[in-house]
Amino acid sequence: MTAAVDEPFDALLAGRAGHLHRDDGVVVPMDAGRWRATAGPADTWVLDRCSGPVVDLGCGPGRLVAALADRGVTALGVDTSPVARTLCRRRGAPMVRRNVFDPLPGEGTWAHVLLVDGNIGIGGDPVRLLGRAVALLAPGGTVLVETGPQPGEWWCGTVRTCADGTLGEPVPWACVGAAALHAHAPGAGLRVSEVARAGGRCFTELVAV
């Protein structure tokens, strides 16, 4: 049975080709095919830094949760999408269908929080989102963030998904580059410990201060 497509990113998660339209006119490409695939070589940078329990915020179809489970690492996905829940169940990836700002299992006990595939944009307020991630971490934990290709970018506004030519409703979103993240992370109680590029993608590791 196919889940109803009613969340902002459901159409993309369901496999339709698409992208995001920002309210400033910029079009942001979305690689939904990567979301639905198994973890790829670039994802290894993130996976290798996960040595303890992991919570993946905006997990989508659960490829990283499943890959961590295969490595023997406890992991839980969080997503609001019913399509994501269906796809996670198919691959045996544990997840809860919940808003990342709602109460979550294991608050304050996770070794790592993931914000990958552009999910630093969730909610349109990256500092608030990073603060939420800190609240989920155990002492000494890290936040692993995939940033955008433009290092200095710090954009907050609304986006509409466009899938097969159909526009969704506006939702709050943000786009953040590595240098901008470095500048704003202290506002959430975090510092940058490492920045890397892998497979044409950009990643940053943050540690609570």
Structure characterization notes:
- This protein is of the alpha/beta class and 209 residues long.
- It has one domain: Rossmann fold, CATH 3.40.50.
- The protein has 7 helices and 12 strands.
- β6 (110-115), α6 (126-136) and β7 (137-147) form a beta-alpha-beta unit.
- The longest helix has 11 residues, at 126-136.
- The chain is globular, with a radius of gyration of 16 Å.
- Mean pLDDT is 93; it is low at 1-5.
| Cα distance spanning the termini | 46 Å
- Give the structural class: alpha/beta
What are the secondary-structure elements, in order, as H or E? HEEHHEHEHEEHEEEEHEE
| Highest CATH level, the class | Alpha Beta
Give the domain tally: 1
Would you report the number of β strands?
12
User: If you average the pLDDT, what whole number results?
Assistant: 93
Going across the biggest sheet, name each strand in turn: 5-4-3-6-7-12-11
Overall geometric form? globular
Helix content: 10-25%
CATH superfamily: Vaccinia Virus protein VP39
Radius of gyration: 16 Å
Strand content: 25-35%
Q: CATH architecture, please?
A: 3-Layer(aba) Sandwich
Question: How many strands, which pairing sense, and closed or not: the largest β-sheet?
Answer: 7 strands, mixed
CATH topology call: Rossmann fold
- How many helical elements? 7
Low-confidence stretches: 1-5
